[in-house]
Specification:
The protein is an alpha/beta fold. It folds into 2 domains: 190 residues, Aspartate Aminotransferase, domain 1, CATH 3.90.1150; 248 residues, Type I PLP-dependent aspartate aminotransferase-like (Major domain) (Aspartate Aminotransferase, domain 2, 3-Layer(aba) Sandwich), CATH 3.40.640.10. It contains 14 helices and 16 strands. The strands form 4 sheets. The chain has a 7-stranded mixed sheet with strand order 4-12-11-10-9-5-8, sandwiched between helices. It has a 4-stranded mixed sheet with strand order 1-2-3-15. Strands 13-14-16 form a 3-stranded antiparallel sheet, covered by helices on one side. α3 runs antiparallel to α10, α4 crosses α10 and α11 packs parallel to α14. The longest helix has 25 residues. The protein is globular. The mean pLDDT is 97. This is Aspartate aminotransferase family protein. Keywords: Aminotransferase, Pyridoxal phosphate, Transferase. One of its GO terms (molecular function) is transaminase activity. Belongs to the class-III pyridoxal-phosphate-dependent aminotransferase family.
C-alpha cells in the first residue's frame, strides 16, 4: 500500500466518523470565507475542520461526541489545560464588573509585580497578541537606536509582523512566498541569518545598522531547533558589542519553566515578549524591558516629541485580560504545574524515542521543557534549511490524520506536541502507541 492509499483510507475513515463536523464545514463555507472564522482552522490534516464542542483539561470533545487527547492545546493558548476553573471564575467576576474601561484596574499593579518577579525584567506593557507586542518592541528598538534594520533567524515566525515575513533564499534575504497584499520590500530593513550560525550573525551585525535581533530562544515554528552550546552567550555578547538590542519572544518557549527559557537558562534580553498562554487563552500578551532600556525609551520619546506613537490598541491591557493574567501567574502557572508538565514531556520523549528505536526509523525527538517534537530526520536539524528537507508534507499529513482518527491531536504545523499539567500518563501512552502504529504501517508500505 502506497502512502497515498493510506491517506485515502484514513480520509474515508474521518468522513465516516465525523458526520456532524463534515456537515458543519459545508454550512460554514456559506458564511465564512474558506469555511472557518480564521483560515488556519482549515490547515489541519483532516479533509474538513473538526468542530470543537468543549475542552476539559487535556481533553477535547468535538460535535460528533468524539474525545481526543489534546497535545495541541489551541497551539499553546491552553497550555495549562482547557477550562481552568480559577481563570473561569476570575473572568466571570470581571465580566460582571465590566471587561474594559481603557483605564487601569487594581489588578494592573499586581500583574506588573508578578511579571517582574517571574521573568526578571522590571517594567512592562500589555498587548492583545504577541504579534502586537512584537510590532511594538520593533518600533521601540528602532526609535531608541535610531537604526533601521531588524535581524531575524531563517525559519522564524513572530506573528503577523511584516518585518519578519522574510526568509533565506540562495543565501540572501527574500520575502516569503505567498504573501498577500505585500507592497513594501521588507528586505530593505530586515536581515536574515541561519540559526546557530555565529559567523553569519557577526557578519550581519558588522555594518552597525541593526536595531535589534528578534529571536525565539529555541526555534519552534519550522520544527523545533535547539540552540547549540554557547550560542546564546555568543548572541548576547555579539549584540552588545554591536550596540544592538536583543529581543526574546517566549510565546512558545514559555513551556520551558515557570520563568520561561530566559530564567531557566539565565539569559539577559533587553526586551521580552510572551503571548498566547499568559492569560489562559483569553487574548493577551505582555512585553517587558530593562530599566536601562526604559530610560532610553523615555529619551527617545522626548527627542521625537508629541504626536501619535503608532503603538497600542484599544483592548490592550483591558480589565478582563489583566484579571486572567493575574490568575494564571498566581494560581495556575505554578512550579508544581511545571513539574507535572516536565515529567509528562519526559515520558513522551522517552516513549517516542523507543518507537524510533523499535521501528528502525531515521527520526529523532527534540524536547524543550513541556514541548516535544517528532522530527523526520536523524540527527535533528540545526537550522531551518536542514529542517525544511525533513518536513515531508505527505508524510506529515499522513501522520496527523492517522493520529486524529485515533483520538489524538497535535499541533497542525509540523509535529509539535505540548504536555499540560492535566495530561495523564495514559494519554501520553496512547499517543506513543498511535505513533508506533503509524511506524508499523510505514514498514508495511515499504514491504
Amino acid at each position: 500500500m502506497r502512502l497515498d492509499a493510506l491517506l485515502a483510507r484514513e480520509t474515508a475513515r474521518f468522513g465516516a466518523e465525523h458526520p456532524r463536523s463534515v456537515a458543519m464545514a459545508a454550512e460554514a463555507s456559506a458564511v465564512w470565507r474558506g469555511g472557518a472564522p480564521m483560515h488556519w482552522m482549515g490547515d489541519w490534516a483532516s479533509p474538513s475542520p473538526i468542530f470543537a464542542e468543549r475542552g476539559e483539561g487535556a481533553r477535547l470533545i468535538d460535535v460528533d461526541g468524539r474525545a481526543y487527547d489534546d497535545f495541541c492545546l489551541g497551539d499553546t493558548p491552553s497550555m495549562f489545560g482547557h477550562g481552568q476553573p480559577a481563570v473561569a471564575a476570575a473572568a466571570a467576576q470581571r465580566l460582571n464588573q465590566g471587561a474594559g474601561f481603557m483605564l487601569p484596574t487594581a489588578d494592573a499593579v499586581t500583574v506588573g509585580r508578578l511579571l517582574a518577579e517571574r521573568f526578571g525584567l522590571p517594567l512592562w506593557q500589555a498587548a492583545v497578541t504577541a504579534s502586537d507586542a512584537n510590532r511594538a518592541v520593533i518600533r521601540w528598538a528602532r526609535a531608541v537606536t535610531e537604526r533601521p534594520v531588524i535581524l531575524v533567524f531563517d525559519g522564524c515566525y513572530h506573528g503577523m509582523v511584516e518585518d519578519c515575513l522574510v526568509t533565506l533564499k540562495d543565501g540572501a534575504t527574500a520575502m516569503k512566498a505567498g504573501l498577500v497584499g505585500q507592497v513594501h520590500d521588507m528586505t530593505a530593513t530586515t536581515r536574515v541569518v541561519p540559526f546557530n550560525d555565529l559567523v553569519a550573525l557577526e557578519a550581519a551585525l558588522e555594518p552597525g545598522d541593526v536595531a535589534a535581533v528578534l529571536a525565539e530562544p529555541v526555534m519552534t515554528n519550522c520544527g523545533m531547533i535547539l540552540p547549540e552550546p554557547g550560542f546564546h552567550d555568543a548572541l548576547r555578547r555579539l549584540t552588545r558589542a554591536a550596540g544592538t538590542l536583543l529581543i526574546l519572544d517566549e510565546t512558545h518557549t514559555l513551556s520551558s519553566g515557570s520563568g520561561g527559557y530566559v530564567r531557566a537558562h539565565g539569559l539577559a534580553p533587553d526586551m521580552f515578549v510572551v503571548g498566547k498562554a499568559i492569560a489562559g487563552g483569553i487574548p493577551a500578551a505582555v512585553w517587558g524591558v530593562t530599566a536601562e532600556l526604559s530610560a532610553r525609551m523615555d529619551a527617545a520619546q522626548a527627542r521625537i516629541g508629541p504626536g501619535q506613537s503608532g503603538i497600542g490598541t484599544t483592548l490592550a491591557g483591558n480589565a478582563l485580560a489583566l484579571a486572567a493574567i493575574k490568575t494564571m501567574l498566581a494560581e495556575v502557572m505554578t512550579e508544581a504545574a511545571y513539574a507535572r508538565m516536565e515529567a509528562g514531556a519526559e515520558r513522551l520523549a522517552a516513549g517516542l524515542s523507543g518507537v524510533i528505536a523499535r521501528q528502525g526509523l531515521a527520526w529523532s525527538v527534540v524536547r524543550v521543557g513541556a514541548r516535544v517534537e517528532l522530527v523526520f530526520a536523524d540527527p535533528a536539524p540545526k537550522n531551518a534549511a536542514e529542517m525544511r528537507k525533513a518536513l515531508d508534507p505527505d508524510l506529515l499529513a499522513a501522520l496527523h490524520l492517522w493520529l486524529i482518527n485515533r483520538g489524538v491531536l497535535i499541533a497542525p504545523f509540523h509535529n509539535m506536541m505540548l504536555v499540560s499539567p492535566d495530561t495523564a500518563d495514559a494519554a501520553i501512552d496512547r499517543l506513543v502507541e498511535a505513533v508506533d502504529g503509524f511506524g508499523a504501517a510505514l514498514k508495511d508500505l515499504a514491504a
